[in-house]
């Protein structure tokens, strides 16, 4: 026996008051927009509790758009209009302005209504308050980004690690080749670092690595200049749009800063302070050149510096030879 047959009057499916009461008792905010005039023909009373704006103030889609965060407005309005014109159901997340001047995250779920001839007649939907969900998502994304950034940092020195260095080198190499701009790389090795550790212990050795890393970072002053720990006591500077002369100037600036820091190293045969051996390479990449060969040039220059007098800069030339600059 149906409810109607049981003497309850007309059936639920024929009772608009029942549906109205049901819609207005939920937390979701129902609404209806006439497609031809783009005006609201209905919006649930819950809107006043959520956003504070009186129901009577929701007249057209312009009121809806104007009460949207400026950063979301263009994206959401264009998307919703495009989907509506296609006659496609859709949903969109955005920040809605409250009457008190704050913003609440809203999810609008939109359905298309058609008349008997199949023409678009209206849009109906629900607004959901998703502020708490968004807070969780934003915090989760922040933590994910933080973890990702940490995975690209050397945990000891705080500069970029080898993983990040490989990605930056690949990107800058491709960009230098595309723009036909010089790319320089400087490889550094701390002279007699094992003896420093033997004299002062690994704790002081770690402090020394951190200090050298910061000095090198400070010497690379432009936004795209990039410092990384290559491994052990080796560091690298990547210098986009930098020719050999400018790269050598940066290397000498690094030596200057390290000399001023005067990190005591009595066991060094070169000086009674921490010093560096340095290899510099510069390339104007052609399509026949390889990044691997470029890195080999810098590595060979560094090797010559370490096998020679140390505490010096070796600049790799295009013919494979090196020019040594002593630094005392």
From TrEMBL:
Q: Which GO terms describe its cellular component?
A: plasma membrane
**UniProt name for this protein:** diguanylate cyclase
| Domain named GGDEF: residues | 181-318
E.C. code: 2.7.7.65
GO molecular function term, any single one: diguanylate cyclase activity
The PAC domain is annotated at 90-142
Q: Which cofactor does it need?
A: Mg(2+)
User: Which segments constitute the PAS domain?
Assistant: 15-88
The reaction(s) catalysed by this protein are: 2 GTP = 3',3'-c-di-GMP + 2 diphosphate
Q: Which residues form a coiled coil?
A: none
Stored Pfam families: GGDEF, PAS_3
Q: What class of enzyme is it?
A: transferase
Q: Name one GO biological process term.
A: negative regulation of bacterial-type flagellum-dependent cell motility
